[in-house]
Amino acid sequence: MNWIEFIKTNWQYIVPVIGFLGAVFMYVAHDRKLKNLQIKQLKEEQDKKKQADIKCNAYRSRSNSIVKIVNAGPADASNVRVEILDQDKLEGLMFFHEKWGPYYLINAANSVEERIALCEGHDEFIKLKIVWDDDFSKNRETILNVQLS
Predict the structure, then answer these.
(1) Rounded Cα distance, 36 and 38, in Å
(2) Count of Cβ atoms closer than 10 Å to residue 134 Cβ
(3) Among the four 10, 99, 121, 131, which has the fewest Cβ within 10 Å?
């Protein structure tokens, strides 16, 4: 008996077996993709827990503006360095500290404050480059444009 005759006489058995094998293959392939996605999501969650998230805002106190540098992330930020950018746009601002930082540690959900005296005609924004280390990575950085109140 050759292959063609075998298929003609047993096709009613061959088709369900092929369908079953195809379903098993699809299940295994889908399950593998799903497990890889779950592993990726778990890794991203673990990475987020290791990251400090530095934010900045300012509020007014009399004729001063207080710039608050906040660690909004779940991890501590260490060796926080602050650089004031656009030095040519700082007219009308008097800094109580000429250099901000470096701050040894800003714990999660904590902050540090710097005070700026505001004179007439001062710029509305100050641009800051903040660099820090955390459990996720060293020398993470952000550039923030803070509105002085």
Answers:
(1) 5
(2) 23
(3) 121
Q: Quick: pLDDT tens for 38-83.
A: 999 999 999 999 999 999 999 998 888 999 999 999 999 999 999 9
Q: Is 68 exposed, middle or buried (0-12, 13-18, 19+ CB in 10 A)?
A: middle
Strands (E), the chain: 54-61, 64-71, 77-84, 93-95, 103-106, 111-118, 125-133, 140-147
Between β-strands 77-84 and 111-118, what pairing exists: parallel, antiparallel or unpaired? unpaired
Copy the structure tokens of residue 131.
Answer: 């660099």
Q: pLDDT for 80-103, tens place per residue?
A: 999 999 888 888 888 888 889 899
